[in-house]
Recover the amino acids of this structure.
DNA sequence: CTGAAAGCGCTAACAG
DNA sequence: CTGTTAGCGCTTTCAG
């Protein structure tokens, strides 16, 4: 293995000069920098990560804790993870993958052994058991999602309340008067994950403001459930013309169910969703939707972490504004 | 930060004794072990990962390179990654996540800086540009998938040829005489990924052996493509009664298309698939399938790596035997 | 702008 | 069965 002293000798400088040439932490004359760089190239030098971490107390590794549980749309998690890795690399960091299953002990382990410099935690619950630990940890962290109190933490997520509002307002602008929200599975609400409730709040508030009548329907993600809820909606609310879907796996089956029940989308029924853009585009009738910006959340989470590592203060809460894209599934209300 | 010397002092032993008590690399009397463990607990000691890596030349971290490209079923990748992390933890290792995008330079970087001890590379192409590097690297690696020559490498995957055979043989036993394979998108074949071709080989060979007539149809993953290929099959092969699907996103749409064209599954047409069990179970008509055992592949890959790290020889090729589960989508041929 | 040298915290000979 | 000690390869004062 070629080490820093080899490079130093080869370049005719001291090891510290090589180190500084690499880190840029002190000025180096153009000429010596050239020599050092040449030596590094010629010898194929790579600084030893462990030695670096030991001497500098920085591993340049971030921990990413991903959820496993049911009811989570896997592609979103994956896209998020990829975006975290990609952004971390831009800041010369790597990413260690942890599963939720490891729990608090896992967080403590990677933090206390100095394996990682900082942590990103996905799928935060309102009353997440990891919160006290994350507050106490000597390492910065960013959470995806919002617990009941973000006091002393750094949280980021899509503004789900505003997303719910945006969907309803879009339908309101198109003249719709009665809307329904087909929501996440009941367990998501029970599990006390904030985002589902926020959507409901935004949805209801916006409908009230616009004087629309509205109803909320938590719904299983099973394909059969689509038919059931579609029939129920038609039966109980024949005047319904606008639907907001916040349930990825159900989006396509639900539209199918409506059409099989004789409702044209968007002719008779306008449908909007809160989901990843790729999903909204892939449906047979491309769906007007508020994007779930997993890639952007990942990028922003890393950027927040980098600022914290640099000692800069960052806001406790970052809410990404919703972005609604009109597609084929919404149209002005068909006034008979 | 509490360090090993603190623990040693607290327990009244030498640092090396603490180290050996932790690693078990030499016998420790029951009594001192107790004292050391107590000291560790009382002080909340955690060995510094970097220091350890530096002194032992082992980071206890594995690299996992995941693919990003289109045509790859994301949940399979995620499930695989989770299984790698979970198994690695059983062996006291962590997992560093890399994207394909980083390319050879990324592999070289984490290997040469000693950030990781070993590597797992997914989605290997027949003529993968990373092969020479992986052969040359001073660190063990395991590849998921098979390149043209696995000489000097360690590869593992489902035995896709046998999987193709198993599907056909199942249909043969049920009396079917004419079968079709609806395969992966054309780009998957072009991209020279071995597994798609292996399925074709097994499919064709088994059909020939059983005296069945057979045809192969690469197919886009877009939902619209299902209808197109279904119509084509009915038109060109009216006697067709058995279909093997090797294209996850198309499975459900294809069955829908067949039924919309008036064919009952499995009454008129038996369908089998090569796909994750969860997908096969989630379809409206649960599909008889050969499982894509991503979790098992992940586990086995880590186990292979651990044996290589321990200096044990391992087979160059590991082919996991297919496991076919009968579900509702296949039935004996309906002889008129 | 550059060098010398003291650690960073741990492991693994070596010695007993 | 346990202790002493010399590094592991790099960063970062401290000096110049």
């Amino acid at each position: 293995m070629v080490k820093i002293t080899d490079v130093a000798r080869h370049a005719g400088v001291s090891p510290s000069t090589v180190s500084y040439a690499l880190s840029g932490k002190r000025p180096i004359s153009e000429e010596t920098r050239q020599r050092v760089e040449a030596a590094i190239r010629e010898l194929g030098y790579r600084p030893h990560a462990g030695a670096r971490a030991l001497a500098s107390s920085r591993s340049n590794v971030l921990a990413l804790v991903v959820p496993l549980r049911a009811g989570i749309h896997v592609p979103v998690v994956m896209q998020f993870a990829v975006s975290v890795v990609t952004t971390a690399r831009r800041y010369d960091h790597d990413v260690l993958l942890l599963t939720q299953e490891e729990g608090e002990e896992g967080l403590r382990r990677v933090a206390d052994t100095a394996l990682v410099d900082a942590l990103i935690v996905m799928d935060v619950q309102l009353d997440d058991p990891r919160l006290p630990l994350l507050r106490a940890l000597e390492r910065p962290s960013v959470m995806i999602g919002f617990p009941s109190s973000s006091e002393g933490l750094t949280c980021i997520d899509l503004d789900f309340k505003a997303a719910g509002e945006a969907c309803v307002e879009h339908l309101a602008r198109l003249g719709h008067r009665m809307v329904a929200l087909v929501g996440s599975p009941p367990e998501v609400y029970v599990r006390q994950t904030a985002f589902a409730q926020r959507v409901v709040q935004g949805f209801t508030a916006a409908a009230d403001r616009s004087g629309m009548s509205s109803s909320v329907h938590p719904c299983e993600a099973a394909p059969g459930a689509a038919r059931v809820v579609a029939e129920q909606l038609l039966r109980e609310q024949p005047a319904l013309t606008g639907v907001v879907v916040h349930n990825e796996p159900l989006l396509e089956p639900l539209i199918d169910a409506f059409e099989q029940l004789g409702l044209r989308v968007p002719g008779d029924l306008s449908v909007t969703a809160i989901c990843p853009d790729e999903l909204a585009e892939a449906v047979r009738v491309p769906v007007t939707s508020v994007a779930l910006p997993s890639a952007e959340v990942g990028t922003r989470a890393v950027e927040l972490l980098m600022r914290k590592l640099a000692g800069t203060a960052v806001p406790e809460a970052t809410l990404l504004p919703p972005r609604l894209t009109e597609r084929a599934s919404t149209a002005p209300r068909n006034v008979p």
